[in-house]
Design a protein that fits this description.
InterPro entries: SHKBP1/KCTD3, SKP1/BTB/POZ_sf, T1-type_BTB, WD40/YVTN_repeat-like_dom_sf, WD40_repeat_dom_sf, WD40_rpt. This is BTB/POZ domain-containing protein KCTD3-like. It is built from twelve helices and 37 strands. By secondary structure, the protein is an alpha+beta fold.
């Protein structure tokens, strides 16, 4: 009964002339029992057995009929069209244009990998949409960059840019036609390491409808301008003089920074590129038109890009020191939060930063301290490794240290949008986002595989976890608690090489909201798109157990309509009556012709005036002032101003409640 499959292990085992002198011992009795039962009865019993483990065991023994059945079972749970979260697929570029003559003649001082190696050319055939493309593919022995794979995916508004080794491609979404390719750059001789996109350029060289995309490698930066029709033109090639670590746009200004202490700025209005020397930079962040730099000397500097200020004596960038760390530690992570610009909050700016010693500090500048600079608000010393990431949002403070991406989170208490110490920030969660990197990865790997957190400051933010470098699976987790929202797996099984999260406005209809998407770049050159809004809406709802617990105090049986009216249970009726009697006065007051209680002079005056929202301003500390020597317990925010009412207004509600 064990040898009815000709090419199986047992058939070959029986054909051995020394068959009677051998002893067979199965590797895994649990997985081998269903195989033995299948060989005897030709029936399959899957109770208590993992299908994947059983398939591997059947492949080991060469049980072909069983392997085919198990593969079919696995295909029921796997689809080439993805799950409900899969939203779109951008195929690899139809043709990879590589100038072979330039490669042969290339002698670049920036990329010696192209010099001294044997050059090989192989002819590859790609079949896409029933059309054959003949592509000359260039391979250099020892080069870490594969020209086929997507290195970086970045986005801005309804545009995304995909960076390959030697060119970039821009896509745009429209409600009627979906995603379309609108721009493809010429072939570049050097491998791209950083990329930036600006989909809304004001005051550009060809008008306000321009889009701009920039790419960098080593110290070189190339900038293109893209018109509405998709026609692109090269603006120029700039040099920072040192390797570029960060490349991004602030308004219409292109900014490049280096850890060596150089900042390069290109102004779209003046068409001028300028490089400024500062202290060695260890972190940076943007807020509105401000560029904030955290440096290794413990200071935080800022530049207002909207004014683009230049010193009169030498036309250098006006770099102003904003704050100095009391421990003189290097500022390794930086996050700026601007509160809503209302007449109540005024110029209220909050900055969270992490240091090389693992400290997390929050400094605040409020309207009362505009002239004296930010004040130290809170300090947390929970990390023992340097802080690599930090994010201050509306509801949470999130910090990540170098110890395997150890994450600590706190809840942030706010009053009218402003951070408050009553009851103050409280610890929320501690977890790790383990993400292994290749030993010899390209410089673009860190830019294309940033774990986050992603999302707007006033919304839930997420981490993207890529556990191992060569994988086709990503995990999406809440940045506040570490809870897993979903996992995405490449629909074609290819390796995920980069990713990013963006919000896109897919519809202009009234009531529609931007949707959050996860874009993944792959080793074969494709880009896949995943709907995170649906994932977060699904995971955000209550489970069946939680729903039943919430309905414990509600009696649905008294309803007489199709949709049940929730009527309170008898156990909560007394509480409702007490609350109703206390609010009887307010209902009577609402029925007055004048709209209720009288307004005080202050309130009437306040409601009659409408102030324009104030523009936030950062004020450096005065000369000779101590930048923040106080600790977290003694530097709290000022308590909000309370409007006192007359005793006549306070007495009426108390009497009604009595």
């Amino acid at each position: 009964t064990l040898t009815w499959i000709p090419d199986s292990f047992f058939s070959s085992f029986e054909r051995d002339p020394f068959f009677f002198y051998k002893i067979f011992i199965d590797r895994d009795p649990t997985a081998f029992a269903p195989i033995l039962n299948f060989l005897r009865t030709k029936e399959l019993d899957l109770r208590g057995v993992n299908i994947s483990i059983l398939r591997h065991e059947a492949e080991f023994y060469g049980i072909t009929p069983l392997v085919r059945r198990l593969l079919l079972c696995e295909e029921l749970e796997r689809s080439s069209c993805g799950s409900v979260l899969f939203h779109g697929y951008f195929p690899p570029p139809g043709r990879l244009r590589i100038d072979l003559w330039k490669i042969e003649k290339k002698q670049s001082p920036f990329h010696p990998l192209f010099n001294g190696y044997r050059q090989h050319f192989s002819l590859l055939v790609y079949q896409h949409t029933e059309v054959l493309f003949w592509i000359f593919f260039y391979i250099t022995i020892g080069s870490p960059v594969d020209p086929r794979k997507v290195l970086i995916v970045a986005g801005h508004h309804n545009w995304i840019v995909a960076a390959y080794a030697h060119f970039v491609i821009c896509y745009r979404i429209k409600e009627s036609s979906g995603w379309q390719q609108v721009f493809s750059s010429p072939y570049l001789d050097w491998a791209i390491e950083r990329v930036a996109l600006n989909a809304k350029v004001v005051g550009g060289p060809h008008g306000d409808k321009d889009k701009m995309v920039a790419a960098s490698s080593e110290s070189s930066i190339i900038l293109w301008s893209i018109q509405d029709g998709g026609n692109g033109s090269e603006i120029g090639v700039f040099s920072l003089g040192v390797p570029v670590d960060s490349l991004f746009f602030i308004g219409s200004q292109l900014v490049a920074t280096s850890h060596t202490g150089k900042v390069g700025v290109w102004n779209a209005v003046t068409q001028h590129w300028q490089v400024q020397d500062v202290v060695p930079i260890t972190s940076c962040d943007t807020a509105g038109s401000f560029l904030l730099l955290g440096c290794n000397n413990g200071s935080i500097y800022y530049i207002d890009m909207q004014k683009f200020p230049l010193r009169m004596k030498d036309n250098d960038l006006l770099v102003t020191e904003l704050y100095h760390d009391p421990s003189n530690d290097a500022i390794t992570a930086l996050s700026v939060y601007l509160t809503p610009k209302t007449s109540v909050s005024g110029n209220w700016i909050e900055i969270a930063y992490g240091t090389s010693s693992g400290a997390v500090r929050v400094i605040v500048q409020h309207p009362e301290t505009v002239g004296s600079g930010p004040q130290l608000f809170q300090t947390f010393t929970v990390h023992r490794s340097p802080v690599t990431k930090i994010m201050l949002s509306e509801k949470h403070l999130v910090s990540v240290c170098a110890d395997n991406n150890h994450v600590r989170t706190w809840t942030v208490t706010r009053f009218r949008g402003m951070i408050s110490t009553q009851p103050g920030s409280t610890p929320l969660a501690s977890f790790k986002i383990i993400s292994l990197e290749e030993t010899e990865s390209h410089s673009s790997y860190s830019s294309g595989n940033d774990i986050g957190p992603f999302g707007e400051r006033d919304d839930q933010q997420v981490f993207i976890q890529k556990v191992i470098p060569i994988t086709n699976k990503l995990f999406v987790r809440l940045s506040s608690t570490g809870k897993r929202i979903c996992e995405v797996q490449a629909v074609d099984g290819t390796t995920i090489t980069c990713f990013t999260v963006r919000e896109c406005e897919g519809s202009s209809r009234m009531g529609s909201r931007p949707r959050r998407y996860l874009f993944t770049g792959h080793a074969n050159g494709s880009i896949q798109m995943w709907d995170l809004t649906t994932a977060m809406d699904t995971v955000g709802g209550p489970t069946e157990e939680e729903l039943l617990k919430l309905l414990d105090q509600c009696d649905l049986s008294t309803s007489r309509c199709a949709t049940p009216n929730i009527s309170p249970a008898p156990s909560v009726l007394q509480h409702s009556r007490l609350r109703e009697s206390c609010s009887r006065y307010y209902r009577a007051a609402d029925s007055r012709p004048d709209g209720g209680r009288r307004r005080g002079a202050f309130e009437a005056n306040f409601l009659s005036r409408k102030k324009a929202p104030s523009v936030p301003q950062l004020s450096p500390p005065p000369a000779g002032a101590d930048g923040g020597g106080s600790d977290s317990s003694s530097t709290a925010s000022p308590s909000p101003t309370k409007v006192s009412t007359s005793p006549r207004h306070r007495k009426a509600p108390d009497a009604a409640c009595e």
